[in-house]
Write a sequence for this structure.
């Protein structure tokens, strides 16, 4: 005879989710208000500086300094198409994105590897701790001059600097993941016949990789910020160098156009990183 | 850690496991086990009950080889009839499922982490067989977070049974479950354990669980623990767990064991108990 209580076996789904349409209906007042705010802001930006009394009040209402939505839209169009002898932005976007992604990838792999090794070997971890904390305390941007001296003002320098930033984000997460493995999991695997190597490979490594991957959205955001900063400081072609050009030539419209492009790129990369994380770590639970 | 069963064969007087006058103290001096002796016949289920904090989990850690006894001997008979059996596994009180593995991969963890003699198809067949025996059909591809508490425990149990172990240690395995779920699991694990001829040591604070599952029940004294009373449980290898608890024989036995356990609980309350980690 087999006795089974029904709740254990009738598990599926959970409560029914509201339909797509009813969710849209519930959210629409919020979206409409947001859209209204945005339009209001753009209108104010465009037209307030045209009021002479306000314009006389200072830089905040001077289109030379704050530009205007219309000029920025025009600048964006020119950047996208190369109209009016404008530089074409795509090459710059690609340089920055490429350096950021490469830096993120290398930084995360190195961070995960160090996190795995140090979380597995207590002695090594104790020895390395002060050095890692010390290294982490150094603002990485301060290292830009040294790296530029060694590698020149090149894309390589930008990648290396972003690796330095991402490494520590990934490393601390990986280390946390490696040390968070509960003792029972290790003992259980051992009793099932696992040796040290299998425990490292089958228990600790997956934890480390999961925790490292959890830091992906943060890491890639940091990487973009670092690469842009490095480009501003070194003049290596990229979004940062365009910002540098805009500053030197006093071109507010170009500055805003680059900033908007960077924001769009940043959101796209973060969304992609979130999607990757959610897909790979679906088992993490809800 | 050394495998307990890999040690030298010793005279165990017909028992699979002989705990012989074992004492253990943690560094710092807390005496946890004192001169404890237990004989576990092969293929039997031995329930161990005792006051909370008396050292039940320390006993399991000693048997699993995670700790070494201060004095006395833990002897395992070398069962030459079944030389290929995996020596020992343990089902922990806390969850040991790996969250990134499906139910069937968790059950087959042993095959993943050790050099199993079974081929891939034999491993698959073994897992499918166990899944069916424990009523987890349809949940094979689910991940732990998608399971109820009862299903998680079933999966963890099957993972420790999959290597076909000679001995299985259960450390308060079902304490977090509600009663109907627990009794359903009792039926399945009892059937599986008897079918596979696994020798089981069950640590529990649920006296009903100990009596209904076991062939013998040991009541431990409060710390430092030793065996206070031993009871034979004459319910055989065919048990109906739903009907069992109303059976007069069960109730009578429950009363007898409880009386002894109550004595020890009373003693443990009359002085502070040193907590074991």
């Amino acid at each position: 005879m087999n006795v089974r209580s029904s709740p254990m076996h009738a598990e599926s789904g959970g409560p029914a989710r509201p339909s797509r349409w009813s969710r849209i209906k519930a959210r629409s007042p919020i979206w409409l208000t947001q859209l209204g705010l945005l339009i209001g802001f753009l209108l104010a930006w465009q037209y307030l500086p045209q009021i002479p009394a306000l314009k006389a009040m200072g830089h905040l209402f001077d289109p030379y300094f704050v530009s205007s939505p219309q000029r920025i839209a025009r600048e964006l169009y020119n950047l996208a198409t190369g109209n009016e002898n404008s530089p074409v932005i795509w090459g710059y976007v690609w340089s920055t994105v490429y350096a950021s992604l490469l830096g993120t990838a290398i930084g995360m792999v190195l961070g995960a590897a160090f996190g795995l090794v140090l979380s597995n070997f207590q002695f090594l971890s104790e020895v390395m701790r002060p050095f890692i904390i010390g290294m982490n305390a150094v603002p990485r941007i301060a290292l830009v001059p040294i790296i530029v001296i060694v590698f020149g003002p090149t894309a390589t320098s930008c990648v290396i600097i972003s690796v330095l930033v991402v490494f520590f984000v990934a490393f601390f997460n990986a280390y946390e993941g490696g040390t968070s493995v509960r003792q029972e999991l290790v003992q259980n695997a051992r009793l099932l016949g696992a040796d040290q190597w299998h425990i490292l490979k089958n228990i600790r490594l997956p934890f480390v990789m999961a925790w490292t991957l959890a830091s992906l959205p943060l890491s890639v955001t940091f990487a973009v910020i670092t690469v842009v900063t490095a480009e501003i400081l070194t003049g290596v072609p990229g979004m940062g160098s365009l910002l540098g050009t805009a500053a030197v030539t006093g071109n507010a419209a170009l500055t805003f156009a680059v900033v908007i492009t960077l924001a769009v790129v940043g959101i796209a990369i973060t969304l992609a990183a979130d999607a990757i994380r959610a897909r790979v770590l679906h088992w993490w639970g809800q | 850690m050394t495998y307990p069963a890999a040690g030298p064969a010793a005279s165990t007087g017909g028992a699979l496991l002989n705990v012989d006058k074992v004492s253990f103290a943690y560094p710092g001096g807390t005496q946890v086990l004192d001169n404890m002796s237990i004989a576990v016949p092969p293929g039997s289920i031995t329930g161990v009950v005792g006051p909370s904090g008396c050292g039940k989990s320390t006993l399991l850690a000693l048997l699993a080889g995670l700790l070494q006894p201060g004095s006395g001997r833990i002897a395992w008979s070398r069962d030459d009839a079944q030389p290929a059996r995996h020596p020992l596994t343990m089902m922990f009180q806390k969850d040991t499922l790996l969250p990134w593995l499906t139910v069937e991969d968790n059950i087959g963890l042993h095959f993943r982490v050790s050099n199993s003699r079974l081929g891939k198809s034999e491993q698959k067949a073994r897992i499918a067989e166990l899944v069916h025996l424990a009523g987890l059909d349809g949940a094979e591809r689910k991940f732990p977070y998608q399971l109820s508490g009862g299903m998680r425990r079933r999966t963890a149990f099957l993972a420790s049974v999959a290597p076909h172990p000679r001995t299985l240690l259960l450390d308060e395995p079902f304490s977090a479950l509600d009663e109907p779920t627990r009794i359903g699991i009792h039926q399945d694990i009892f059937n599986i354990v008897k079918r596979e001829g696994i020798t089981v040591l069950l640590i529990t604070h649920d006296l009903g669980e100990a009596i209904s599952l076991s062939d013998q029940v040991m009541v431990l004294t409060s710390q430092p623990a030793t065996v206070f009373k031993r009871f034979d449980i004459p319910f055989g290898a065919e048990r109906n767990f739903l009907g069992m608890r109303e059976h007069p024989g069960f109730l009578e036995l429950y009363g007898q064991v409880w009386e002894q356990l109550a004595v020890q609980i009373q003693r443990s309350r009359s002085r502070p108990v040193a907590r074991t980690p």
Summary: The two ends of chain B are 19 Å apart (CA to CA). The interface with chain A takes residues 1, 64, 66, 86, 88-90, 92, 94, 96, 98-100, 109-110, 112-116, 135, 138-139, 143-148, 150-151, 154, 159-160, 163, 180-181, 183-184, 187-188, 191, 240-242 of chain B (CB under 8 Å). The longest helix of chain B spans residues 248-269.
